[in-house]
Design a protein that fits this description.
heterohexamer; A mainly alpha (93); B mainly alpha (163); C mainly alpha (112); D mainly alpha (126); E mainly alpha (539); F mainly alpha (980); C: 112 residues; mainly alpha; Helix Hairpins; 3 helices; F: 980 residues; 5 domains; two-stranded antiparallel ribbon; disordered C terminus; binds sodium ion
């Protein structure tokens, strides 16, 4: 019983996250401005991170937790770099 | 002397907590190792010499966090509704210039985090000279309500904690 | 699952190869990145696919069939590192070439 | 996947679904909202209660199956809510600058002095 | 494993690595110290590799040549194998290394930072590639070698080097991907990375998987052939080599040989007579490609407008000859080819060193470095380095003699070893079962022999043209000075070819036994798979 | 001294002497001459001493092992024929040395001359004494090379350079042909030993490869002895000093060609192919050379063409394949050497004393140098075939042979007529030489009064002319025994009888001689008027200039065609190179896989919609990135990030947490890296160039798309095929089973990296280190593109804004921009450090490890750089990345070496569980220290790469200043210092 509940709820959740990632991807592709795309990439990162966490639940191991944590702690670095590039034309001054 | 070893006691404590959470263990060995790591991390931050935030009332932080949690949950639902409404809703979003009394960089950072982390409001631009901040609000029905919320719920609390 | 991954590898390869054949250095560097994704996934795939069988063993005796093949993973790790290094190198050479030749064409001059 | 009680499964499922739904809505907003400044609000759904929901599910699941409290997921929540604002702030400010420099859209002028007009960059894309 | 000699196999890799890393701890301005360390280490490397060749030639213990890294059993851990071929290649590398290094001390080592470290890392990569018995480890050492070569190819910078460097990097990155795909595919089909283990398994691969295995080998082969400069994969080579600084180009002469070595090693080990249905895989490609390379190289030699490019095309001819010879799959031909390999490498290296001195005669009095510095340097660059060392008297005559020796070697004219190498190959082509056994000459043999002769003639024509215009037609009264440390390495390299001419008998014997072992690898495969481990060390 | 040792000695002495000669001082003419003379005397002495050994047809032989495995040993072999050549080489050599002592000017650098001369002598001796046919080729080519050096001796003269090059090219080509020919002969008989070859005549002549072998050997012989149509190099070789001509172009080198014909006569002659080719070439050369000689205005040119003609005569004789003709050929080889060498020397004396060799300017010299004139006249007479001189004898034998009846009526007629005509021409050019130079009016316009040369300079001529006379008058008691020895060694013991007597009675040969002599005189008389006009070159065939044709051919082949071919079959552009690489990478494996893959069953088992959606995203991102990469670089970079994330999730999906973490981290660093680079890439704007170009580009794009598509399909098929196959029994189980037991870690991948396959990791981090150093080196002298030297547009606009607003100062915008974010970015620094330590320490047992930790640490640094800027960070943190790299490598290395000190192979690791109070069991694996090395290196390398790039922004204002055409007005030293 609990297996079934878990299976379906995780699957649906993952599908929703995949949907989230698809939305973000459309924004990444459609733009129109660079800031929109970067914003979308940031959202994409977050959805991906949550996807990893859900995957951990799905296979019942926390061995993939660090991967999610790395996105959580460091995922913003590349978006920060991109944002700063937009604002200043260079990442490190 | 103490300041050299432990320039940021609260931060180092936080790092120790981080370490222990990462290890998922409260073993003595991990506490010892974590302390070493935390001390080192504190020294590393000290090398960067950022402004040393002076926290007067640490306990108020918990109150603030609870407040924020509730607000964030509320805004989550509100924004979710707006998104679901899609294009059919009327435009309410807009910019908001907010004068602040808060000057401490760390406090401002916390405030900016709160405002931005709360769905529906985003911290755009802080003018240090005048102490004003430009905020974008997704559902800007009542401008003054927003100003009041931020000033009374968060700023005053932050002023208490940091100054 | 194998099919999806195989198609993914194929598409990444196609994009990578196509970009590496383009005349602008930046296209080449993006192509290099895509191609290295493809190649890394390909190496990884050579160990066959298993879900939820990370090669992190317990300390006791273990049953090897319960785990995925660790060898390709070790190879991919090496390949990722080397790929990163080479991307950095190519980037810098590309910048230097842009500086001295005045064009971002891979041949250092516009093709007539 | 050892013996997970039904109540826990239900709870885990609920949190996971709720979190994913919020994240999905956020990203939908990203796709559907009209201007950049509106879209900037959308991802925070995912980073706040979207993340909290899913991570609660994870905490619950591993705490119940692992027979000991697994709370390290909290770290993700903390750091995500600490770092996302940084990104958004930098990005929004950059967008503000670009919109002002190009004088397109209804963005408020710089808070100080007169709005300085400099030739707009001829780059619509990057 | 208690004596240094027990670890001999791994030392040619460790010594350069340690030296290179150690020099990183020194400030870049301590160039003299670095030069001393480097020369000392490289000389030591020569010494070690001589010991290695001696050991490989007279193996007291057949098992001593394979070295199980980390004391892990073969085929699980990485094993190093210092058989006759590997030892010979390592010796060649170290000799070239010493020569190029000494030459570079006259000026080039100061043209950019960390030259000495990169140089040692290049040696490490080369030696590792020659010594390893593991396919993926071969990839890693290829990359070490390539990375160092990228650095060295760009050393000194300037327009030509950067432009050539971009192509060089791009093309070789493409090849690296193929290498990875090939190695992975082979692993996916056979489940092993160890070359000997692979060789033992090839015959027993299910028929259904054989196509995949061979496709994997084809990917690997392409990567090797690109390094070897086989037509149509070698167009980058003349440009890159011509653009590189002289000592670097001299070292690069052996980099193509790494590709050749890998082709030879894997084709004989894994796809030799014992490979069942896969025996002789790719021989046609090698033959055709090799011959096309010779033809293209010869044409390029004639067409070359600069001596540097000419030298680059000489490399191609050498590669083509070796590839086609290996493609014959005959131990006699391989034996001759090995001799030719050593000779042509030494000759081309020496030639690259000479080319720069020739340019100096051409632009008498002009300082090459000064020109590049003026054009591309910036003022913060080091200025302290004027040339080092004593100028030699009669520079023109000595250079002329060296150049002439190079011409003889490269054109394959008597009486020097270049001729002997070609003769050994053609003689074996015509007499594949030995001189006294009568067998008809195959069309491939005719073609190859003809092309080799043609290439020799092309080299003769072009090099004579160069020599005449440099030594006879330039009326420079005051030839630019040539330093002892510039001419000494050239003399060393050329002297070695003379020694190899005089001692051709024993040297050829070494090559023939090497070739026989290569073409009958069963014993070596068995030996490697039976590499003993250190069980317990007595306190 | 055994005879065989003497052979070695005779061969080595000239080469040794050459070395000594090269080292003597520039002006040591006497010493050089003594050295060379002594050498020649020694050689001659040895020859004379050895004559008894070879007189009766026996052979002196010495074998020295060289390369037994290849059947190539040094075999010195002296028979009668080689002896005859040996005497010519040393004897004429001796005379030439004496002559050269006086001929060479004090200004000429004689060491070079004598060194080359002696080396040539040695090569020639080696050639004639070769007992191994490969060795013969070796010395053959050596004579080409040394003669090249001798011809080019006066290299300041363009004609000397050209002549030398042409001689080398032609004879070198012949030599290469000869080599192949010899290789074929070796293949036929199974040995390169000359004696074995000479014993295998029938085998060779009946072998299917006889004709190619013959053609190749003849190519060598005919080029060397300047036979038509390869004759043209010889006249141009006359740019050499006259002693060289006298030696090389009369007695020795050109004779090497006919030597070869004679040497292989026993085994190759007698066939139709031999007869037709050799005889025709010889006859054509004989007539053509003689005809051309008549019309030369240069004395040496006349002699050169005469030499060509005489060599043609010898070749014709050899072509006839009869033993008696061969006797005549050998005899004429010797005779021609004597009279031609003396004539060259005489011409040299004239040139030396008068300063010109132009017949048109010379005349009436008899009255100034009667003695020399007489000598030259006698030698010329010998050349013309006047009775009682040696030339007459061999020419009579020649006539006798061509007059022999042959089965072929054409041959029957053509040979005697051709021979007579050629002889007539010989008389004409001999007359022209004598009459034109020594008789007639006094020469005009000469700078100095001509006089006899020094007596010693004349002595060689005297000796040679004496020989002509003596042999011509009393051949039976002078030349006969030596000729007999030579002949027997070639034609064998059954050589038919031949007579050397001067008078053979009235016969056809005598009649032909008479016709030639009388006809020649008449022809000279008839041509006198034309010749007096002094037109250079033979009429009718003047246009047929071998040199010009040769040079045009060489130019066409070596420059025009070669360059065209190089361009056609090669490229210097990158795109075609990569295209070919990928094309082969598709085609070769495809050809191996086609129809061998067996059935591939499409299986949808385990299909997961989530995973499918993920890859849909990944694919869309990749394609979009590919499409955007040209004009919208930033967009491409962002989309690349999308694909990267999908890749990373895939790794997690299929159980590779380490890969996922590493991929993510590298992804982040790569993005920052490319962004750092992007600042230096000026914008690309779409340019709409002409239609044709657009069309061409489009076609190229479609072509590339097709290839890329094929590559993708190939990878898909291969990857799918392998993934769905049975897993082979491989090495992986060992690692899973033993990672903990023997490696002390539960994360098998990490144990592989730091233990099982740590050697790979060592190499991999070395690569990273090397690349960092290279990046550093390249960037140290980085010159940005001119368009990107200036500050980025954004910064300029913002600075301008700050400048205009009264209450602001430059930099306010950026500091406000970063005011709040930088606080959080600083706070993250300790967090990242803790994360790095965490990943590092857990690596051995859980996903993580030194590499991941290193990247995390460097991201921490980079984040601070982004927050505070380069100056701000470097004021606070001192990072010495190069040291990090060095110590990382050393640390990793030391762990490995430590094992060696305790007797284990390199990289053997040790681990142990230590009980530490309060803490418990702690794994202490030496691999951890190795991983620490990895960490250190990765931090150093990554930071070095990124920081080196970042530093360009700090440097760029300086670069901009540097690039400015006019430097800023410099502050004069006495100006007051306003600010520091
Ligand atoms: Na917000
Ligand atoms: Na201002």
């Amino acid at each position: 019983m609990s297996e079934t509940i878990l299976f379906w709820s995780i699957l649906v959740s993952q599908l929703m996250l995949a949907g989230a990632m698809i939305s973000a991807t459309t924004r990444m592709i459609r733009g129109p401005r660079a800031q929109d795309r970067i914003l979308a990439l940031d959202a994409f990162y977050v959805a991906a991170m949550l996807m990893l966490v859900l995957f951990g639940i799905r296979v019942g191991t926390s061995v993939y937790f660090e991967a999610a944590l790395v996105i959580g702690i460091l995922g913003f670095v590349s978006t920060v770099a991109l944002a700063k590039f937009l604002m200043r034309g260079e990442v490190i001054e | 002397m103490m300041r050299q070893i432990l320039p940021y006691p609260l931060l180092s404590l936080g790092m120790l907590a981080l370490w222990l959470l990462l290890q998922q263990s409260l073993g003595l060995g991990h506490i010892l190792l974590g302390t070493l790591v935390a001390l080192f991390a504190g020294r590393a931050l000290a090398a960067l010499e950022p402004d040393r935030p002076r926290i007067r009332k640490p306990l108020k932080i918990i109150q603030l966090m609870a407040l924020v949690a509730v607000d964030v949950l509320r805004s989550n639902l509100a924004v979710a509704r707006i998104v679901l409404d899609g294009r059919h809703r009327e435009h309410h979003s807009g910019f908001l210039l907010l004068p602040l009394e808060l000057r401490d960089r760390s406090a401002l950072a916390v405030l900016s985090c709160i405002i931005t982390a709360t769905p529906g409001s985003a911290w755009l631009e802080y003018d240090a000279m005048r102490g004003t901040v430009l905020i974008h609000v997704l559902d800007l029905v009542d401008e003054q309500a927003w100003i009041d919320t931020i000033k009374h719920r968060y700023e005053s609390l932050l002023l208490e904690i940091f100054q | 699952m194998e099919l999806i991954l195989a198609i993914g590898i194929g598409v990444l390869t196609s994009c990578g190869v196509y970009l590496m054949l383009r005349p602008r250095t930046f296209q080449v560097i993006i192509g290099l990145s895509l191609l290295s994704y493809a190649v890394n996934l390909f190496i990884f795939a050579m160990g066959r696919l298993k879900t939820g069988a990370a090669p992190v063993t317990a300390s006791g005796a273990i049953d090897p069939t319960q785990f995925t093949d660790p060898v390709p993973q070790a190879l991919v790790l090496t390949a990722i590192v080397i790929g990163f290094a080479m991307t950095a190198l190519f980037l810098v050479v590309m910048l230097a070439a842009r500086g001295v030749t005045g064009t971002d064409h891979v041949d250092g001059r516009e093709q007539r | 996947m050892s013996e997970l009680p039904v109540w826990a499964a239900l709870l885990v499922g609920f949190f996971a679904l709720a979190g994913s739904l919020l994240t999905l809505l956020g990203c939908l907003g990203l796709a559907r909202l009209d201007s950049f400044y509106e879209r900037v609000h959308a991802p925070t759904l995912g980073t706040s209660f979207g993340a909290i929901g899913i991570l609660l599910a994870s905490i619950l699941y591993f705490s119940v199956t692992g027979q000991r409290p697994a709370v390290h997921e909290v770290l993700i929540v903390i750091f995500v809510s600490l770092t996302t604002p940084v990104t958004l702030m930098l990005l929004a400010r950059a967008a503000l600058y670009r919109d002002r420099a190009e004088q397109n859209g209804n963005v408020p002028a710089a808070a100080f002095g007169q709005d300085v007009v400099v030739e707009a960059p001829a780059d619509p894309q990057a | 494993m208690t004596s240094l000699l027990d670890h001999l196999t791994v030392l040619p890799i460790l010594l350069p690595l340690a030296t290179g890393a150690l020099m990183l701890m020194l400030d870049d301005r301590q160039r003299v110290t670095k030069a001393f360390i480097n020369v000392f280490a490289t000389a030591l490397l020569v010494f070690l590799s001589v010991a290695m060749v001696i050991r490989a030639a007279n193996p007291a213990d057949l098992l001593a040549v394979s070295y199980p890294l980390g004391n892990w059993p073969v085929p699980f851990g990485i094993v190093l194998v210092a058989d006759r071929l590997s030892a010979m290649m390592v010796l060649l590398t170290s000799v070239l290394g010493l020569s190029a290094l000494v030459y570079s001390l006259a000026r080039w080592h100061a043209a950019g930072p960390n030259f000495h470290t990169l140089f040692q890392f290049l040696l490490m990569g080369l030696n590792g590639a020659f010594l390893t018995g593991d396919i993926f480890n071969l990839f890693v050492f290829f990359e070490v070698m390539l990375a160092a070569s990228y650095g060295l190819a760009l050393h000194g910078l300037g327009l030509a080097r950067i432009k050539a460097g971009l192509h060089y990097v791009a093309v070789n990155l493409g090849a690296s991907f193929l290498f990875l795909i090939g190695a992975a595919l082979i692993y996916g089909v056979t489940g092993t990375l160890n070359m000997a283990d692979l060789a033992a398994k090839v015959a027993t691969i299910p028929e259904l998987d054989r196509g995949l295995l061979e496709a994997g080998a084809a990917f690997l082969g392409l990567a090797f052939l690109l390094k070897a400069g086989m037509w149509p994969l070698g167009f980058w080579l003349p440009t890159t080599y011509a653009a590189a600084t002289a000592p670097v180009a001299a070292m690069f002469a052996i980099m193509t040989k790494v590709g050749i070595y890998a082709v030879l090693r894997l084709s004989t080990l894994a796809f030799g007579i014992e490979a069942g249905a896969s025996a002789g895989l790719g021989q046609t490609v090698l033959q055709l490609g090799g011959m096309a390379t010779i033809a293209f190289g010869a044409v390029g030699i004639l067409a070359a407008q600069t001596t540097g490019r000419l030298a680059g095309y000489c490399v191609l001819v050498s590669s083509g000859t070796l590839l086609a010879a290996i493609g014959m799959g005959n131990a006699f031909v391989t034996g001759g080819a090995l001799y030719y390999l050593v000779i042509s490498t030494l000759a081309v290296s020496a030639f690259f060193l000479i080319v720069e001195l020739l340019e100096r005669i051409r632009i008498a009095g002009a300082d090459v470095l000064a020109i590049t510095l003026e054009a591309y340097g910036d003022d913060e660059e080091e200025t302290e380095n004027d040339e080092v060392g004593l100028a030699i008297p009669g520079a023109l005559a000595v250079l002329g003699i060296c150049f002439s020796i190079c011409v003889l070697l490269l054109a394959g004219l008597p009486p020097l070893a270049g001729f002997l190498g070609k003769f050994a190959i053609i003689s074996a082509l015509f007499n594949p079962q030995g001189l006294t056994e009568i067998a008809p000459i195959t069309p491939a043999a005719w073609w190859l022999a003809g092309l080799m002769i043609f290439a020799g003639f092309a080299a003769l024509v072009a090099l004579t043209r160069t020599g005449i215009s440099t030594f006879w037609a330039t009326m420079s009264d005051t030839p630019a000075p040539v330093r002892v440390i510039e001419i000494a390495p050239i003399l060393l390299l050329l002297g070695l070819t003379v020694v190899m001419t005089v001692m051709a008998g024993p040297v050829m014997d070494y090559m023939y036994i090497t070739a026989e072992n290569l073409h009958a690898p069963a014993i070596e495969i068995g030996n490697i798979l039976a590499t003993p481990l250190v069980v317990e060390v007595a306190p | 001294m055994t005879p065989s040792f003497l052979l070695t000695f005779a061969l080595l002495v000239p080469f040794g002497a050459a070395l000594v000669a090269a080292l003597l001082p520039q002006n040591a003419r006497n010493a050089e001459a003594w050295l060379a003379g002594t050498t020649a005397v020694a050689g001659l002495g040895i020859m004379i001493y050895l004559f008894p050994q070879v007189a009766n047809g026996s052979v002196v032989r010495q074998e020295i092992a060289w390369i037994p495995a290849l059947g190539l040993n040094i075999i010195l072999r002296l028979d009668g024929f080689a002896w005859l050549f040996g005497v010519l080489i040393t004897g004429v050599g001796l005379l030439v040395v004496l002559y050269a002592r006086y001929y060479m000017s004090p200004k000429d650098p004689v060491p070079r001359f004598f060194a080359f001369f002696l080396a040539f002598m040695g090569s020639m001796l080696g050639l004639v004494m070769s007992g191994n046919i490969i060795q013969l080729v070796i010395f053959w080519e050596l004579t080409s090379l040394t003669s090249f050096l001798l011809i080019g001796y006066w290299f300041h003269l363009a004609q000397a350079r050209d002549g030398a090059r042409m001689a080398l090219t032609v004879t070198g080509l012949g030599g290469l042909g000869l080599l192949i020919g010899m290789l074929i002969i070796g293949q036929m008989v199974g040995s390169y030993d000359l004696d074995v070859v000479l014993d295998s005549g029938d085998l060779i002549r009946e072998h299917p490869l006889y004709l190619p072998a013959l053609l190749l050997v003849l190519l060598g012989a005919l080029t060397k002895s300047a036979q038509f149509p390869f004759h043209f190099w010889l006249p141009h070789a006359m740019a050499a000093p006259t002693p060289v001509s006298a030696y090389l172009h009369s007695a020795t080198m050109v004779k090497a060609g006919v030597f070869l014909l004679v040497r292989f006569w026993p085994v190759m002659a007698g066939t139709d192919a031999w007869f037709w080719i050799v005889t025709c070439a010889g006859m054509a050369t004989l007539i053509f050379g003689a005809y051309a000689a008549i019309f030369q205005t240069d004395l040496k040119g006349l002699l050169a063409y005469s030499t060509i003609s005489h060599l043609g005569l010898i070749t014709t004789l050899l072509g006839m394949s009869t033993p008696l003709a061969t006797v005549a050929a050998i005899f004429h080889i010797a005779n021609h050497a004597t009279f031609k060498a003396s004539l060259f020397m005489a011409a040299g004396i004239i040139d030396h004393e008068i300063g010109t060799r132009d017949i048109r300017k010379l005349s009436g010299l008899f009255r100034f140098m009667p003695f020399t004139a007489t000598l030259a006249m006698v030698a010329s007479a010998a050349m013309a075939g006047v009775p009682l001189l040696n030339g007459f004898l061999s020419k009579e034998m020649f006539f006798a042979e061509v007059a022999e009846r042959d089965a072929n009526p054409f041959v029957n007629l053509a040979l005697p007529i051709g021979a007579t005509i050629a002889s007539m021409f010989a008389v004409v050019y001999s007359l022209r030489f004598v009459h034109g130079v020594f008789f007639g009016p006094k020469p005009e316009g000469l700078e100095k009064v001509p006089h006899e040369p020094p007596a010693l300079m004349r002595r060689p001529i005297e000796i040679l002319v004496l020989l002509c006379l003596v042999v011509g008058v009393i051949p039976g008691i002078t030349i006969a025994p030596y000729l007999a020895a030579a002949v027997v060694s070639v034609t064998g013991p059954d050589t038919p009888y031949y007579s050397l007597s001067v008078w053979h009675g009235w016969n056809l040969a005598l009649a032909m001689s008479g016709v030639a002599l009388v006809g020649g005189v008449l022809l000279y008389w008839a041509l006198y008027g034309y010749l007096a006009q002094g037109v250079d070159g033979p009429p009718l065939i003047r246009q047929l200039q071998g040199k010009r044709i040769f040079e045009r051919i060489m130019l066409t082949i070596t420059s025009k065609w070669a360059r065209r071919l190089e361009a056609r079959f090669g490229t210097r552009r990158l795109q075609p190179q990569l295209f070919l690489l990928f094309l082969l990478a598709v085609a070769l494996p495809a050809s191996l896989l086609m129809s061998r893959l067996g059935g591939i069953n499409l299986s949808f088992a385990g299909f997961d919609p989530v995973f499918a959606l993920l890859w849909a995203i990944g694919i869309v991102c990749a394609v979009a990135a590919a499409q955007q990469a040209k004009f919208h670089r930033l967009v491409a970079l962002i989309l690349l990030g999308g694909t990267g994330i999908v890749t990373c999730i895939t790794f997690v999906w299929f159980s590779a947490p380490d890969l996922a973490i590493t991929q993510l981290l590298v992804e982040i660093v790569t993005t920052v890296l490319i962004l750092l680079g992007l600042r230096w890439l000026p914008k690309r704007v779409e340019d709409l160039s002409d239609e044709a170009q657009v069309l061409k580009a489009r076609i190229r794009r479609y072509r590339d798309l097709v290839l890329a598509g094929l590559a993708g399909v190939g990878m898909t098929v291969v990857a799918y095929a392998v993934m769905t196959r049975q897993i082979p029994e491989g090495i992986s189980e060992y690692f899973l089973e033993n990672a903990y037991k023997l490696g002390g870690g539960t994360n098998v991948v990490n144990v592989m990296l730091v233990d099982f396959r740590a050697f790979d990791t060592l190499g991999e981090i070395t690569v990273l280190g090397i690349v960092a150093l290279t990046v550093f080196a390249v960037l140290r002298r980085f010159r940005p593109a001119s368009e990107s030297i200036a500050k980025p547009e954004q910064q300029r606009i913002q600075a301008e804004f700050d400048d205009r607003a009264p209450e602001r100062s430059q930099g306010d915008t950026v500091s406000e921009y970063l005011l709040i974010p930088s606080v959080i970015m600083n706070w993250m620094f300790p967090v990242i450090i803790v994360l790095a330590v965490h990943l590092f320490l857990r690596g051995h047992d859980q996903p993580g490890g030194g590499f991941a930790a290193g990247i995390v640490m460097s991201i921490g640094f980079i984040l601070q750089y982004m927050a505070g800027g380069t100056r701000w960070v470097e004021d606070r943190l001192r990072i010495l990345p190069v040291r990090w790299i060095g110590s990382g490598l050393l640390l990793a290395l030391l762990v490995g070496v430590a094992a060696q000190f305790v007797g284990y192979p390199f990289m053997t690791t040790a681990f142990q569980y230590a009980e530490i109070p309060w803490i418990g069991r702690v794994p202490m694996a030496s691999a951890l220290i190795f991983d620490l090395g990895v960490f250190s290196l990765v931090v150093g390398a990554t930071v070095l790469i990124l920081i080196a790039l970042a530093h360009q922004s700090v440097r760029s204002p300086k670069a901009a200043r540097h690039a400015a055409p006019i430097k800023q007005a410099e502050v004069s030293p006495d100006a007051p210092v306003e600010s520091r």
